[in-house]
Amino acid sequence: MYLWVFISIQKKLLNERFVNNTPEQVVVIEKNKEADVLAKIETLKTSLDSWKFFV
């Protein structure tokens, strides 16, 4: 799920039209969402890595 959210945010931020025509506040919000999702993905990745010890 987080991966799809991340991809969606990335599409927006990589779209020059979106970045140039959207109020700066909205772009900042999207960048903050991106950072939050990346942090959650890293947390999940770390959790999965710790489970490898038990398998």
Average pLDDT, rounded to a whole number, is 92
Major sheet summary line: none
How many E-type strands? Answer: 0
Radius of gyration: 15 Å
Helix content: over 70%
Secondary structural class = mainly alpha
Low-confidence stretches: none
Number of helices, where a helix is a run of at least 4 consecutive DSSP H or I residues? 3
> What would you call the shape?
elongated
Task: Considering the chains and any ligands shown, give keywords for the structure.
mainly alpha
Please provide a written account of the structure.
Helix content is about 85%, strand content about 0%. By secondary structure, the chain is mainly alpha-helical. Helix 1 runs antiparallel to helix 3. It is elongated, with a radius of gyration of 15 Å. The two termini are about 25 Å apart. The mean pLDDT is about 90.
Brief rundown of the structure:
The chain is mainly α and 55 residues long. The chain is 85% helix and 0% strand.
What's the helix and strand layout?
Blueprint: H1 2-14, H2 16-21, H3 24-51
Helix pairs in contact: 1-3
